[in-house]
Amino acid sequence: MNSDMNNEVKIVKPHQRDTSTAQTPGMSRAEGAGAKTVGAEHLWVGHVSVDKGVRSGPHHHGELESVIYVISGHARFRYGDKLEHTVEAEPGDFVFVPPYLVHQEINARADVAVDMVVARSSQENVVVNVDVEGANES
Fold first, then answer.
1. Distance separating alpha carbons of residues 114 and 96, to the nearest angstrom
2. What CA–CA distance (Å, rounded) separates 99 from 2?
3. pLDDT tens, 2-54?
4. What does CATH list as the number for 46-129?
């Protein structure tokens, strides 16, 4: 552990979030606490937003486990090799996404954005975008 980087409590203001992380079409990801913002060595936590009526492209996060906490809005998650499964999450729900699982976040509403906090099991925010036939269909 780097003693110069990790010997104090750190606050990361919204304007200090790092947006250089990999992006998925239709989503905005910003690191709140990770290697780039606070020198974290074992985790990545960020803010993710899905705009009104938008769906992300299909993607997975490699070997990383992910946990998503829905702050506001209603999120629909399609998952599986062909996005053949669907679950819905609302404010207050936690969503677990296992390693390598292809998934897609969808804002289930056209009138409000979905805001979420995402935590990953590494300081890297791995995003692997994939092509799935029918991903733009409901």
1. 17
2. 28
3. 445 568 999 999 999 999 877 776 788 899 999 999 999 889 999 999 998 88
4. 2.60.120.10
